Amino acid sequence: MGSVEIDGSNIIVPTLNDLFEEDRVELDTKTRELHVLFLERFTKTHEGFVKHDIDIPDLLGSKVTALPPRLSS
């Protein structure tokens, strides 16, 4: 198998179906943890919802660093 140069022009963002099962499980776990953190910012009363000012990091503003691809043997 030849080597492939990896740069921004030849990288495709994977879908959930492309991930290994263990990675999908990890992603699902982290997503549920994030949902809990976000929902903890709210309180429900008989009149509606009250939002609390609890900081949750802005994940979209964070720099994402791509990891090198896994090579199958």
Helical residues, percent: 25-40%
- Number of distinct helices: 1
Our Rg estimate from Cα atoms comes to 19 Å
Order of helices and strands: HEE
- Beta-strand portion reads 5-15%
Low-pLDDT stretches are none
Total E-strand runs: 2
Global morphology: elongated
Widest β-sheet, arrangement of strands = 1-2
Structural class: alpha+beta
Task: Please give the largest β-sheet.
Answer: 2 strands, antiparallel
Q: Separation of termini?
A: 10 Å
Quote the average pLDDT.
Answer: 78
Structure notes:
With 73 residues, this protein is α+β, with helices and mostly antiparallel strands. The protein has a domain of 38 residues. The chain is 26% helix and 11% strand. The chain has a two-stranded antiparallel sheet with strand order 1-2. The radius of gyration is 19 Å and the shape is elongated. The termini are close together. The model has no long low-confidence stretch (mean pLDDT 78).
Question: Top keywords for this entry?
Answer:
73 residues; alpha+beta; 1 helix; 11% strand; elongated
